[in-house]
Amino acid sequence: xxxxDIKVFVCCPGRNFVTIKIMTDExxxxxxxxxxxxxxxxxxxxxxxxxxxxxxxxxxxxxxxxWQYLVKGAYWQxxxxxMAAIGAIDVALWDIKGKVAGLPVYQLLGGKxxxxxxxxxxxxxxTIDDVLNNLEKAxxxxxxxxxxxxxIPGAKGTYGTLGDKKNYYELQGNRPLPPEHGWSTTKYLxxxxxxxxxxREKFGYDIELCHDVHSRLTPIEAAQLGKLLxxxxxxxxxxxxxxxxxxxxxxxxxxxxxxxxxxxxxxxxWDAKPLIENQYIDFVRTAATHGGGITPMKxxxxxxSLYHVRMAxxxxxxxxxxxxMAHMHLDLWAPNFGVQExxxxxxxxxxxxxxxxxxxxxxxxxxxxxxxxxxxxxEEAAKKYPYxxxxxxxxxxxxxxxxxx
Length: 405
Ligand code: CS2
Ligand code: MG
Known about the structure:
2 domains, 13 helices, binds magnesium ion, binds D-mannonic acid
C-alpha cells in the first residue's frame, strides 16, 4: 500500500492546529496532529520541505521503518519541531493500519487493559474560594482526579488561571506577540499550601488532586514545596523543575514523598530515560504529538513500566482531537496507565472541524470501537478558520529577569 500524497492543513478554530492527512493508493487515509504551540509554521515547513517528499511511494504499512528513516535518516536527531512533524506522520500511519485491519488502534497495540480512561479535570480560580466552588462542581460532575491552580495574589498573570480573559486560559488563538507575565517564588510558596489545605478540609481525601508548577522552581525550592504539600497527599506535582538537568530531580526525591510528574516537553524517549531509570519521577507526561508518535510512546510506556512509572499523557488544548484519540488508544492499552489530562471536549468551532466519538461518564472516557483512531477532520470547515499567529506568554521576575513561563 503506497503513500500517494500528504496534505498539511493549518487552521484556527479558537486556536491554531496543524493537521496532516496521508493518502494511499488504496484510498485509505490517516490523520495526524503536528501542532507545536507558538511555532506552528516551522513544523509545516519541516513537513513540506523535508519530510513529505521522502515519503511519497513508500509502503504505508512500514511504520517502524518510516519512523527510523525520519529520525535517524535526518542525521539531526530530536528537537521539538522535527519530532512534532514525525509524530504526526507516525500517528497517521497507525490510523491507516487500524483502518486497513478493521480494528481500533488499541487492538494493534495489544488490546485493552481497562474498560475506560480515567481523566483529570482542570479546576482553577482567581481566589481559593473560586477554586473550591469549581472543585465542588467537578466532583459533582463525577471527576475522581482534579488539577488545582489558583491565581497567586498580587501576581501579574498566573499559569493555569483565567485572569481577565473570558476564554479558557489557553484557548486564545490570537496573541500576535507574547504577552508578559510575572513570577515570585516567595509569594507562590507562601500561598499554594493554603489552597490544598482548604481543599482537603472541605472535600476530604477521596478526591485525588494534582498541581502544575510549570517549571518555575529550582530543585531545592521544589523539595520545599513537596514537603509543604505532603500532608495533602497529592497524586502528583507536575513540572516542579525543568527537565534539562535530571539530577535536579534527585534533590527533590531526597527530601519528599510527594509524587512527581514530568514530560510534556519530552520529544524523545532519551529525555525520559535517566528520570525513569533512576526512579526520579512517578508519572511520565509525554504526548504522542510532541514525543514523535505512537511508536515511541509504546516503547516509552513499556520502558517506564519496568520502573513502576505510570503514563499520564499531556492533554492541553493545544493538542488536537487527533492527538487526544491517539492517547485514548494508548491509555486503554498501556498496562502502566496512570491518568489522562483532559480539558473537555472543546468549543463548537473545534467540533465543527474535528469529530470523534468519546463519552465522559463519572470521570472516565469511553470510546467507540471504530477502526483506526476514530477521528475525522473536516477540510471545508477548517477553511473558515485561517491561521492566526499566536504566542505563548513569557514570564519575568519583578526586576525584569526572564523566567520559565
Ligand atoms: C500544560 C500545558 O497542560 C499542561 O499541563 O503545562 O498547558 C502547556 O502550558 C501547553 O501545552 C503549552 O503549549
Ligand atoms: Mg503541564
